[in-house]
Amino acid sequence: MSALVVQPVWQPSTVRPARRRPASTQPARRGNLQLVGPGFVPRPAPSGAASSAVESASAAPRPAPVTRSRLRLTPLGRSLVASTALVLASGLAIGVGAAAGRAVSAAPSVDDVATVTVAAGENLWTVASAASAPGADVRELIAEIAAINELGTHELHAGQQLLVPTH
């Protein structure tokens, strides 16, 4: 058996000439890059305004002023900011609710108070000593009665109804 080997025939390709750019009216600019070797020390460009070598050596080039652009958040960043704000608001609401709950629970409930009608000649001491437990400090109970009933003074009138805590 014989083998036949086929190889492509080389043909020159059609090369288009490079497109020429129109001549610019501006003078050619010098590039910003420069090849440097070891030990290179940059020197400022000579200026016509500098009259002495001391002035040109002391005039260091100033960096360009930094302009700050407005912060742009991505959608992921926006959702992160929104969720952080939501967590902080929830924590604040829970904290305020807990503080309000403690304030409400500190006040005596309806089950913890009894209504007492003041008789003629009674004062807060007699009402508090009648309602206090044996051996308890009557002065603390007087302060509680005054706070619950919002009494400005310790004067009582016959027939006045007071809420008295029952401990």
From TrEMBL:
PROSITE patterns: LYSM. Residues 46-64 have a biased composition (Low complexity). It comes from the Bacteria. Residues 114-164 form the LysM domain. It holds the Pfam family LysM. Gene3D superfamilies: LysM domain. Residues 13-64 are annotated as: Disordered. This is LysM peptidoglycan-binding domain-containing protein.
